[in-house]
Amino acid sequence: MGKRFGIDIDGTVTCPEALLPYINKGFGLNITLEDVKQYDLTKVVNVPEEQFTNWFTENEPIIYEGSPLAKGAEKVLNSWKKEHELFFISARGAHLLENTKNWFSKRGITYHHIELIGSHDKVATAQRHQVDIFLEDKHDNAVMIHEECNIPVLLFNTPYNQEPIPKGVIRVNDWFEANAWVKKWLLE
């Protein structure tokens, strides 16, 4: 087996807009991805954190069940599965594991391991599983994983992750760019 990939799910494998139809409906809004300039959605929705958390907890399984794949994710991931190990590491809570596995199954995405850690701090999990590369959409996660694990991290470019990045965190616009970068990296 080749390399071990650590891969975030939400906003990386799923398209970053996945939450927005649910937020718009739940809060009577009409926001687009371009309106989301920071990862903390309570700032975008403009409601108290507790209210948003309660709403999200109640709707989380429905949102995840209906989340569309990011463009190109299926093709690229299914090409990688032949030669590499795909370890999906997500901030989702462990109680959503069956929901998550069902989502992968319905979309024909193969995985070697799924770990739902219930936290955005993915460094320890990435270290424990000895991943060689990580794919992420959350800026501070990407930077921390790169710096603590000393591995390349592909950061999927979104309006909410535009802070500066160190060398070793590489911005990609989609799965096709990610695949091209990985192919080049594998040759080095």
Major sheet, described briefly?
6 strands, parallel
Helix % is 40-55%
Using the CA coordinates, give the radius of gyration: 16 Å
**Averaged pLDDT:** 96
The topology string of helices and strands comes to EHHHHEHEHEHEEH
Task: Using the coordinates shown, work out and report the CATH topology of the largest domain.
Answer: Rossmann fold
At the first level of CATH, the class of the largest domain is: Alpha Beta
- Enumerate how many helices there are, as a single number: 8
CATH superfamily of the largest domain: HAD superfamily/HAD-like
The structural domain count equals: 2
CATH architecture of the largest domain, by name, is: 3-Layer(aba) Sandwich
Got a strand count? 6
Please state the overall shape, judged from the principal axes of the Cα atoms: globular
Structural class: alpha/beta
What does this structure look like?
By secondary structure, this protein is an alpha/beta fold. The protein has 2 domains: 4-15 and 68-187, Rossmann fold (3-Layer(aba) Sandwich); 20-66, no CATH class. Helix content is 42%, strand content 14%. The protein has 8 helices and 6 strands. It has helices spanning 20-27, 41-45, 49-66, 73-80, 97-106, 123-128, 139-149, 175-187; strands at 4-7, 85-90, 113-116, 133-136, 153-156, 169-172. A 6-stranded parallel beta sheet has the order 3-2-1-4-5-6, sandwiched between helices. The radius of gyration is 16 Å and the shape is globular. The model has no long low-confidence stretch (mean pLDDT 96).
Output the keywords.
Rossmann fold, 8 helices, alpha/beta, 188 residues, single chain
